[in-house]
Amino acid sequence: MIKTVDLTKRYGESYAIRSIDLNLEAGDLFGFIGPNGAGKTTTMKILATLLNPTYGEAYVCGHSIYHDPKEIRRLVGYMPDFFGVYDDMKVIEYLEFFAAAYRIRGPRRREVCNEKLELVDLDFKRDAYANTLSRGQTQRLGLARVLLHEPQVLLLDEPLSGLDPRARIEMRAVLRRLGSQGKTIMVSSHILPELADMCNKVGIIDRGVMSHCNTVDEVMKQVRQQIVLLIEVTGDIDAAAKLLEQQDMVASVTINKTQIAAKLNVGVEDYTDLGPLLMAAGHKIRLFREEEVNLESAFMALTKGLGHRV
Ligand SMILES: Nc1ncnc2c1ncn2[C@@H]1O[C@H](COP(=O)(O)OP(=O)(O)OP(=O)(O)O)[C@@H](O)[C@H]1O
Questions:
Q1: pTM for the full model?
Q2: How far is the CA of 11 from the centre of ligand 1 (A)?
Q3: Which of 137, 181, 188, 130 lies closest to 158 in space, CA to CA?
Q4: Domain over 2-223 is classified CATH 2.60.40.10
Q5: Is the CB of 41 under 6 A from ligand 1?
Q6: What ipTM describes this predicted complex?
Q7: How far is the CA of 170 from the centre of ligand 1 (A)?
Q8: Where are the domains of the chain?
Q9: How far is the CA of 40 from the centre of ligand 1 (A)?
Q10: Does domain 228-292 have CATH number 3.20.20.70?
Q11: Chain-centre distance of CA 40, in angstroms?
Q12: Keyword Protein biosynthesis, does the record have it (predicted)?
């Protein structure tokens, strides 16, 4: 559905993206992860045929961005990270305006708009003025807009950014729904855990270079070089920490107020014995979980040395 080969964009002497090779199948929900300025928007704009690469190839549904840009625009829905809505238009009018631009005519136009509003859970706002929507609702309206022409491929640039936790949950639910409809979705973010449980594939890009691109499980394994367990016990925390420290699989242990952070050795993934061990020593466990991957530090460490600007 999406294929890029050696895709490169240069501005003067510096590379916005460098030799990106990507292969996404129909139905893939691909998380495109990287910090600010990594090259996510550049890649998406090239795939949406809004920007030409310096060299390399990109195909969407088998069509080359050089030879069939019109066909690609028909097949792709691109949602930029920021977009404006018109002040004096109601939600339904806003959508109908774009539906008209897509030449959706007659009673079908309203039908399609209502369908898409329902799909993004925004039908309850159909008669509200577009500029009165919250950021989360505005993002969902933007999504409804790019769905009007029934694209097979969605390119969504940071649709979760700036949303509060509830709006994030709602947006993620909408994205999952779209994924289950068989669309190929590329969604960018700068937070790995935010996308990891939603996507089947992720790619990590930093300073224009894609350092990891694989199934979520594989990439998480690579990024998470060492698992850190956060543990809270009732009773003697120092004794629990000492016990953990003595285990072969544990690299180091620190105590922060009421919480123990046990860093496991590189490559250790099975730590199921540690809970029962603590309990056998008389500790009751209040919390036992993996620390969330800190993307910024973990993948900055992993990508060190990649992405040199020339
Ligand atoms: N028109 C331009 N002229 C010069 N440099 C540009 C231009 N557009 C983008 N760049 C540079 O290319 C690099 C990649 O930018 P891009 O917008 O693709 O990153 P991004 O991953 O989408 O970042 P963000 O998360 O901040 O949106 C950045 O260093 C940016 O400064």
A1: 0.79
A2: 10
A3: 188
A4: no
A5: yes
A6: 0.96
A7: 28
A8: 2-223, 228-292
A9: 8
A10: no
A11: 11
A12: no
